[in-house]
Amino acid sequence: MRIGFRLPSTGPLDTFREHAAAHGVDSAWANQAPGGWDPLTLLPAVDGPAELGTAIVPTYPRHPVVMATEALTVQALTGGRLTLGIGPSHEHMVTGWWGIPYTKPASHTREYLEVLLPLLRGEHVKHSGEFFTVDHRLEVTAPPPPVLISALGPRMLEIARDLAGGTIVVWVRPDLVENYLVPRLGPGQRVVATVMVAITGDPDGVRDQVARDMAIVDELPAYRTLLDRGGLSGPADTVVAGDEGVVLRELRRFRDAGVTDLIISPLTAPDRLLEVAQQAR
Asked: In terms of Cα–Cα distance, which of 26, 72, 19 is closest to 45?
């Protein structure tokens, strides 16, 4: 299991760079948070990790030609270190915040990939579908980055299996990975899981704080359905918190369940968390 680090999506850029320089991780991941920095623009500033990923960039606000152009630009600037994680996000954000119709997200994602992937490979795409009409070829040259999607439900996992390199998930426990996600993905597919982690003497207090801070998760149908599949009452149930022994044991459970890449989202001092996490490889 490879160990990654979730970069902060807001705040001063100097703080971002300090976190990005954390030693010993295999990868660093940025996401598109509300009001936050653009992840694809930031990644070229990150030194160190062999892999730089987005987890995730929403598809609806970006035409696949634009996404492909940005991704290949970042791939060239980072020396081929990009892994492009994309997904449809949530209606609450896409329609509620941005005013974009959130129509058939699974079908939209499949067609999006049918346009995006050949563009990344340098092919001339002629496509006329339900969501996109494209007649275009990119003239920039860079190795096509691996593409992952935020696949949580059965249809999205099928799309990940058929077209992408795997899934990027959050709000999961090891048993859901082993019994639900892995069986629906093909051999060699990546399971990239973001997990909130805290080394603390007050794990209940940490979970209570997460429950308050992340209350919106319960209002997002895709996440709520995933939590229900795992028999979880809310996002706080997915937090790994306790002393170093507890944390290490829980992270190893993710490895044994089939997680290929664990992204640590730190709730306490990140340096010590990453030292412990490396023992869970």
From this structure: 19
Measured CA to CA, the distance from residue 115 to residue 113 in angstroms comes to 5
| Structure-block tokens of residue 91 | 């209606």
- ∠ CA(132), CA(169), CA(25), 5° rounding? 115
pLDDT at 56: 97
SS3 assignment, position 185: coil
In a domain, 252, yes or no: yes
- 104 alpha-carbon distance from chain centroid: 21
Q: Which domain holds residue 165?
A: 2-201+239-278
**Distance separating alpha carbons of residues 83 and 15, to the nearest angstrom:** 23
Is residue 215 in a domain? no
Distance CA 149, CA 129 (A): 20
When divided into structural domains, the chain yields a total of: 1
d(C-alpha 277, C-alpha 93), whole Å: 32
Is 223 within a domain? no
Tokens 């660093």 -> residue = 28
Q: How many CB atoms lie within 10 A of CB 44?
A: 17
Are 149 and 85 within 8 A, CB to CB? Answer: yes
What distance in Å separates the CA atoms of residue 192 and residue 258, rounded to the nearest whole number? 10
Q: Is the pTM of this model over 0.85?
A: yes
Low-confidence ranges of the chain (pLDDT < 70): 21-23
CATH of residue 114's domain is 3.20.20.30
Q: Does residue 98 fall inside a structural domain? A: yes
